[in-house]
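Whiteboard transcription, Tuesday session. T.W. wrote the structure tokens on the left side:
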């Protein structure tokens, strides 16, 4: 009887241990499944964020096309982000989800790229605003230059000044330059156009001054002659009046 009781107790203990082991195994399996799902979900989120960042980079590069010197830094970020996304996708496809700590490291890298891209876009926007303003300023200067030249041409056209042809040639060149400036995309570097406008400003200033100086001098000379003739007539009239007396 005692033996039977002992055997029953041993069986009960064994069953209890087995049940505890099964329960422990079940808990461990549940925890593993939960961990796998969390990593899976995190990897998908990182892939989505990576693609969103690449889309933003592509949009930015299209908007600022033609200014490659400003896009070098952001293009470099695009290469790094693309490599990171491809690595994540290849691991995800074969269900070889990375360890959680490794995913957190990737998240830190991605966050760093997101911040860098935001900084580069802010720089591009600042440059675009500055240079766009520069384009408007050049147009304003060019139009003012054309107005000044046109006034001189209209005022002195009938005098047949040899400078007028050169002035009109410069005006045509300035007009063409302004059309080119207006066609430039946003964010364009206007250094070359500004140098060209400065040359036209210097040339026209020199030509306009020559015309102005000639006619100013001519007007003074003409005024002196008129004054001399008027004075001569007055003297002649006075002399004639004395003879009558």
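and on the right, the sequence the group agreed on:
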């Amino acid at each position: 009887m005692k033996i039977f009781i002992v055997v029953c107790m041993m069986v009960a203990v064994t069953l209890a241990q087995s049940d505890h082991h099964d329960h422990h195994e079940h808990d461990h399996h549940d925890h593993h499944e939960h961990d796998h799902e969390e990593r899976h979900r995190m990897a998908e989120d990182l892939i989505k964020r990576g693609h969103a960042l690449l889309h933003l980079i592509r949009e930015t590069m299209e908007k600022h096309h033609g200014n490659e010197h400003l896009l070098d830094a952001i293009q470099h970020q695009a290469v790094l982000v693309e490599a990171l996304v491809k690595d994540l996708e290849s691991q995800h496809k074969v269900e070889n989800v990375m360890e959680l700590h490794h995913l957190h490291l990737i998240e830190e890298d991605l966050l760093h790229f997101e911040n860098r891209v935001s900084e580069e876009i802010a720089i591009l926007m600042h440059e675009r605003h500055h240079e766009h303003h520069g384009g408007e300023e050049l147009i304003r200067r060019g139009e003012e230059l054309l107005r000044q030249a046109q006034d001189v041409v209209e005022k002195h056209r009938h005098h047949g000044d040899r400078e007028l042809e050169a002035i009109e040639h410069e005006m045509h060149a300035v007009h063409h330059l302004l059309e080119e400036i207006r066609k430039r995309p946003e964010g364009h570097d206007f250094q070359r156009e500004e140098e060209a406008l400065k040359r036209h400003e210097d040339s026209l200033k020199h030509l306009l001054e020559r015309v102005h100086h000639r006619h100013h001098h001519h007007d003074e000379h003409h005024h002196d002659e008129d004054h001399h003739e008027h004075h001569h007539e007055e003297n002649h009239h006075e002399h004639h009046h004395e003879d009558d007396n």
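Someone added at the bottom: The helical segments are 2-63, 68-93, 100-156, 163-183, 191-244.
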